[in-house]
Amino acid sequence: MADTLAERVIETAQYIIETRCTVREAAKHFGVSKSTVHKDVAYRLREIDKPLYSGVEKVMQFNKSQRHIRGGMATKRKYEIAKCNKSL
Question: Which residues have CB under 8 Å from 2's CB, separation 6+?
């Protein structure tokens, strides 16, 4: 792998661990697609830095366990905003 690719993968992984952000948030922060971030931290990182991969994997597992809650909250906000707009 190219040095720039490895550097990007490590930088993304460190950001995810430090901020405990989701893949979507990391993608937005770095200006790349969600697919790129996911492939970087789920596949490429394993070959580059196993201990760092272990840390990212824990954050990703936690985010995965919480996604149904975040989805429910987003749906609730959506309908609250629609309700407020309807009453105006």
Answer: none
